[in-house]
Amino acid sequence: MKVKVISRSTDEFTRERSQDLQRVFRNFDPNLRPQEKAIEYVRALNAAKLEKIFARPFIGAMDGHIDAVSCMAKNPNYLKGIFSGSMDGDIRLWDMASRRTVCQFPGHQGAVRGLAASTDGHTLVSCGTDCTVRLWNVPVATIVESDDSSNCTAEPLAVYSGNNAFWDVDHQWDGELFATAGAQVDIWNHNRSQPINSFEWGTDTVISVRFNPGEPNLLATSASDRSITLYDLRVSSPARKLIMRTKTNSIAWNPMEPMNFTAANEDCNCYSYDARKLDEAKCVHKDHVSAVMDIDFSPTGREFVTGSYDRTVRIFQYNGGHSREIYHTKRMQRVFCVKFSCDASYIISGSDDTNLRLWKAKASEQLGVLLPRERKRHEYHEAVKNRYKHLPEVKRIVRHRHLPKPIYKAASLRRTMTEAEGGKKKEGKLIVLQEVLPLNHYVKEESSKKLSELWHYQLL
Amino acid sequence: MGVKQDNADPGQILPPIEQELSNELDPKLKKYLRGEGTNLEVLKDKKLKSQLSVREELYGISAKAAAKAEEWLMPSEGGYLEVEGIEKPWRINQHSISSEINISSLKNQHDIIIPDLGPYTLDFNSSGRYMAVAGRKGHLAVLDMKNMSLIKEMQVRETVRDIVFLHNELFFAAAQKKYPYIYNRDGIELHCLKEHGSVLRLQFLKSHFLLASINKFGQLHYQDVTMGEMIGNIRTGLGRSDVMQVNPFNGVVALGHSGGTVSMWKPTSAAPLVKMLCHPGPVSAMAFHPNGHLMATSGKERKIKIWDVRKFEVLQTIPGHARALDFSQKGLLAAGNGSFVQIFGDLSESQHYSRYMGHSMVKGYQIGKVLFRPYEDVLVLGHSMGWSSILIPGSGEPNFDTWVANPYETSKQRREKEVRSLLDKLPSETIMLNPSKIGTMRPVNKKEKQTKQEIAAEMEAAVEAVKDTAFKNKTKGRNKASKRAKKRKELIERVKRPLLERQLKEDEKLAKKPKISEKENALPTALQRFASKKATA
């Protein structure tokens, strides 16, 4: 007869010295764990509640400007710095960690409308309503030192003047060219005082311009005739034009999928398009209640931030129809520009009340270096919350956001209006697609005939 | 299924050892997969299909890792009893075992004889290290079974009918003559639970922190021991019953009654979940298998029945008396009767229980309670003259999980575990017959609510149908245009009226729904988001 009984020796199961860690033994048998799903559900509820408790997205405000902040630019080589330009011509370089001005770039006489940093981070291009484009040398040494007391001012490298006010500027990715938007789209080189190329389609002002991150010769512009136009520098002619119902205030290309761009429109929505197929929007992002003023993608390409005239900043998923997060403060007035920081953790918003505000991209994120245990616990909470996020109690807590009363009322008004119009019927949007032959082939009389042949209407 | 076979590619030839291993792992994998994978073929949504297939693959990988860990990383091995030749296992007694096993396990074979203090009942804490013992004549004691030391004993000078540990070994509840009391490990009386009355049996639901009791009048009480709130107070209406067990799988309390019925209860409802007729006579004992599928009941007509609790049908009937029943962690069933205890086991994995071992005590000792010790191959019998501990090889789970129950717990670990288990405390609404239904979709209502569009469409269709009815042309001046228009209008309204009435009724029902109560409105604004119409925790 062979008999064996469970016998455990204490030495094997307890620690040897008091400086050792306690021993942990695992047995993953589901029979030892009754009611697993109920426990997971309780943990999901607790995780959702904890997320709300720790949700403090606002980090700080950077004040110093004396007029509304009209535009911002990121320095691609330096995470801590951000440029901002205001309506009185003041351009500043900020250190986000200490939230102080590092350098000032005085010179513009009117409002600064556009700022762009070159890819190597040494040059800053600015344009304004005083019909000038100015190039500045970014003092790298001062940024690196980030000395609190010093506040340098820089002299412009060059001042180029044009005939009309400029509305926007963008620098080519990995190139020497930059484009300005004004009466027409101008392509400049750093060293030339006149634009080396000009594009024009129609007679309306071009209000924003963006270079494609993946294809350095492609750029998208939006004009005040409610159109979005794509230009190709190599062909030196406009490539595609898309006319919408309302004007587009800003465009942003998806850095991870460079064929897609998202347009921030005046009718409170953002429209994502595939640049190869402009006849239909890939996604409509609806949540704002007033004109969307600015849009910027996160470097991960998975979400984007929008700032709107309704005093809120919203974060959307790149393919989501509704926002996942909204930030608002009593003191933040109309938001004119937003930027996603280059490490995808922070959002900077510049608004009418002369402040730049720094927010966290994930409101309940724990900043700083996390211990491995903390990181695991955060990941577990995320995972268990995602598993049960469709259940009503958990969904209610996760979805809950406090909205300011005017926005809440405006949003419910919009909802009742769209419901009254017949629910899910999409808006009839007039999209005109026009394939244009290269300009040099155009003859004026023929052109009108050709245009009428090529116009075709499409209702979405 | 979300499992990728190791040898799916016929061209790939594994070395023979690995082949054997992968074959061995497959049945173990089933345990960790926790059910069938979803059928992805019926999905039309490509995005959802790809997301789900990724997830199913992850489940497969984690189940495989768990099966491998079970195969290689477990520190202890289970006990066994193998007989040779013509020996029968049920003829082997404790004395013959004791000469074959190692000396350190011999301390688990003992008899404690305390003749004057009445029949003893006992309870273990979740790790099996501590035992609480209560004699009918008022003797309460808490012992540390690892060191075989007495932690605290006291005499309460009243009849004590039952004793249970609460979530820790620090607290235990004793059902005394008039009311149950909660005591500290140091013997300090912490609470006197007057609402329960004269309790016959106590049970503690570990994950819900609920103390359930059945009293002389057949009333079932559920008390939350964290806040002291009485969650449920149910008049069973089925008379006095002193057979009460908790199903560890779903937290349901089962009572055995003198009419032979077994009823199952949850704290939030006044009617039992299930009432099943088990025996022609009174139910004398009951036990649940830890996996929640099997239940053993014994009746006064000398039959022990093993039930499948999911389908409520008898799997097996074993002849014999049993005044006390218990299942071990590995599925062995102990039936105590008189001074003899019989242990049954399903040795051939076919869910058929056959005789495994037996033990008889001195004649005259009446066994009142049998309890297997968790994580050890030990069975403790509480009888009229004290208690005895015997060895049953193969009854306990050899490998414990430190995060679930740790027999080698230090006081710091115990404190941390208490806080974590309080955070994971389940609300009493999660007690249901099938707890895996949490998180699944509710079946669709047969009568689907119409959307606004459908209602509008219905109304339009009705009006269209009636619009063009031709009216008879009246003569002699009775065919006025205004009268015709009025008639047409009335006809359309008559058609619309039933639909509008239905809409009105539904709106009324919606308006009558209970709003958030006053109490929750009185909360400060920061906490109002956590107030809800139903209690959640």
UniProtKB/TrEMBL annotation, chain A:
<keyword id="KW-0677">Repeat</keyword>
<feature type="repeat" description="WD">
    <location>
        <begin position="285"/>
        <end position="326"/>
    </location>
</feature>
<keyword id="KW-0687">Ribonucleoprotein</keyword>
<dbReference type="InterPro" id="IPR007287">
    <property type="entry name" value="Sof1"/>
</dbReference>
<dbReference type="InterPro" id="IPR036322">
    <property type="entry name" value="WD40_repeat_dom_sf"/>
</dbReference>
<dbReference type="GO" id="GO:0016567">
    <property type="term" value="P:protein ubiquitination"/>
</dbReference>
<dbReference type="InterPro" id="IPR051733">
    <property type="entry name" value="WD_repeat_DCAF13/WDSOF1"/>
</dbReference>
<feature type="repeat" description="WD">
    <location>
        <begin position="328"/>
        <end position="369"/>
    </location>
</feature>
<comment type="similarity">
    <text>Belongs to the WD repeat DCAF13/WDSOF1 family.</text>
</comment>
<dbReference type="Pfam" id="PF04158">
    <property type="entry name" value="Sof1"/>
</dbReference>
<dbReference type="Pfam" id="PF00400">
    <property type="entry name" value="WD40"/>
</dbReference>
<keyword id="KW-0853">WD repeat</keyword>
<dbReference type="InterPro" id="IPR015943">
    <property type="entry name" value="WD40/YVTN_repeat-like_dom_sf"/>
</dbReference>
<protein>
    <recommendedName>
        <fullName>DDB1- and CUL4-associated factor 13</fullName>
    </recommendedName>
</protein>
<feature type="repeat" description="WD">
    <location>
        <begin position="62"/>
        <end position="104"/>
    </location>
</feature>
<dbReference type="GO" id="GO:0032040">
    <property type="term" value="C:small-subunit processome"/>
</dbReference>
<dbReference type="InterPro" id="IPR020472">
    <property type="entry name" value="WD40_PAC1"/>
</dbReference>
<keyword id="KW-0539">Nucleus</keyword>
<feature type="domain" description="Sof1-like protein">
    <location>
        <begin position="361"/>
        <end position="426"/>
    </location>
</feature>
<feature type="repeat" description="WD">
    <location>
        <begin position="105"/>
        <end position="146"/>
    </location>
</feature>
<dbReference type="InterPro" id="IPR019775">
    <property type="entry name" value="WD40_repeat_CS"/>
</dbReference>
<dbReference type="InterPro" id="IPR001680">
    <property type="entry name" value="WD40_rpt"/>
</dbReference>
From TrEMBL, chain B:
<feature type="compositionally biased region" description="Basic and acidic residues">
    <location>
        <begin position="490"/>
        <end position="521"/>
    </location>
</feature>
<dbReference type="InterPro" id="IPR001680">
    <property type="entry name" value="WD40_rpt"/>
</dbReference>
<feature type="domain" description="BING4 C-terminal">
    <location>
        <begin position="355"/>
        <end position="435"/>
    </location>
</feature>
<dbReference type="InterPro" id="IPR015943">
    <property type="entry name" value="WD40/YVTN_repeat-like_dom_sf"/>
</dbReference>
<feature type="region of interest" description="Disordered">
    <location>
        <begin position="471"/>
        <end position="537"/>
    </location>
</feature>
<dbReference type="GO" id="GO:0000462">
    <property type="term" value="P:maturation of SSU-rRNA from tricistronic rRNA transcript (SSU-rRNA, 5.8S rRNA, LSU-rRNA)"/>
</dbReference>
<dbReference type="GO" id="GO:0030686">
    <property type="term" value="C:90S preribosome"/>
</dbReference>
<feature type="repeat" description="WD">
    <location>
        <begin position="276"/>
        <end position="317"/>
    </location>
</feature>
<feature type="compositionally biased region" description="Basic residues">
    <location>
        <begin position="473"/>
        <end position="489"/>
    </location>
</feature>
<dbReference type="InterPro" id="IPR012952">
    <property type="entry name" value="BING4_C_dom"/>
</dbReference>
<dbReference type="InterPro" id="IPR036322">
    <property type="entry name" value="WD40_repeat_dom_sf"/>
</dbReference>
<keyword id="KW-0677">Repeat</keyword>
<dbReference type="InterPro" id="IPR040315">
    <property type="entry name" value="WDR46/Utp7"/>
</dbReference>
<keyword id="KW-0853">WD repeat</keyword>
<dbReference type="Pfam" id="PF00400">
    <property type="entry name" value="WD40"/>
</dbReference>
<protein>
    <recommendedName>
        <fullName>BING4 C-terminal domain-containing protein</fullName>
    </recommendedName>
</protein>
<dbReference type="GO" id="GO:0032040">
    <property type="term" value="C:small-subunit processome"/>
</dbReference>
<keyword id="KW-0539">Nucleus</keyword>
<dbReference type="Pfam" id="PF08149">
    <property type="entry name" value="BING4CT"/>
</dbReference>
